[in-house]
Amino acid sequence: MRQPGVIALCLLGTAFLAGCQGATDAEVQRAVKDVNVIDESNLNDIMLTIGDPNEAVAYFQGALQKDPSRIDFKRGLARSLIRAGKANEAAQVWEQVAGSAAGTPEDKVMLADAQIRSNQWDKAKATLNSVPPTHETFDRYRLEAMIADSEKNWKKADSFYEIASGLTTKPGNVYNNWGFSKLTRKDYPGAERLFIQALTYDPTLFTAKNNLMMSRAAQRKYDLPVVEMTQTERAELLYTAALAAIKQGDISVGKGLLQQAVDTHPQHFEAAARSLAALDSNVKM
Fold first, then answer.
1. pTM
2. How far apart are CA 228 and CA 249, in angstroms?
3. In the chain, where does DSSP find H-type helix?
4. Which of 12, 36, 143, 210 has its CA 20 to 30 A from that of 160?
5. What are the pLDDT digits (tens) for 232-280?
6. 81-to-45, 116, 146 alpha-carbon distances in Å
7. Are 98 and 107 in contact (CB under 8 A)?
């Protein structure tokens, strides 16, 4: 996939060297190194985006064995470990990066992110407290909001969520997280509004659709929200509403919603069918 780019770089290097036949060996080596750095940077970017996470981890580990001083390789390894679901290991690498002479405030923010992912909330709070207040980024305030949530400091959480949502062009996930925070506080109308906001920015966000259904069902609003959804999603949301209705004692409503979920799903909906059968069995008893 990368051959055209590599060939172009090789041709560029060949042409450059052909035009500098009188150059010293040191100058030739520098020219070759410059070409290799360009290609290496492209490969680093590919590994951080579309590459398989475990392959990316292996790539950056190998690169660091050859050149342990490269801070960009360490950052690449830490990011790849996060993508591979290895947050504990990522936190250790980010700690090295953030504590180095080349460390930046953003490295500390990424360290805090890894610490939260690995359930090290106290460490994450301490890390964020060490970030200069002038470093105002989306990730910083997103994490600040999550920590405030974990401490049930709702006023601070709302403030940080609001700031974070204004620092990105894609705030769908922020509004979803904020809405879930409201849901845990049992502020169901507030949660419903935030989930709707999340879906205006990202209509494909199924988590927000399901959370929206839970916030509505908690208010005994069991009809489906007017949002974009596939047939499978419709069945899943009906199932969510059914379980909420049954939990709240609205058994007949829940049974009807379960039947709708089974009928709506384009394939066999095992979970809903099993719940419906169990409900029928209990009712008959």
1. 0.79
2. 29
3. 3-18, 25-49, 53-66, 71-83, 87-98, 105-117, 121-129, 138-150, 154-165, 172-184, 188-201, 206-217, 231-247, 251-264, 270-284
4. 210
5. 999 999 999 999 999 999 999 999 999 999 999 999 999 999 999 988 8
6. 15, 14, 21
7. yes
Rounded CA-CA distance 100/74 in Å is 11
* Nearest-angstrom CA–CA distance, 135 and 115: 19
- Residue 11 and residue 152: Cα distance in Å, rounded? 60
* DSSP secondary structure, 78-125, as one string: HHHHHHTT-HHHHHHHHHHHHTSTT--HHHHHHHHHHHHHTT-HHHHH
Assess contact for 161 and 145: CB atoms under 8 A: yes
pLDDT digits over 81-107, tens only? 999 999 999 999 999 999 999 999 999
Q: Could you tell me the CA-to-CA distances from 204 to 5, 46, 86, 223, 224 in Å, in that order?
A: 34, 25, 27, 20, 16
Q: Which of these, 52, 56, 117, 62, lies nearest to 88 by C-alpha position?
A: 117
Cα separations in angstroms, 270 against 38, 174, 187, 267, 284:
52, 32, 32, 9, 21
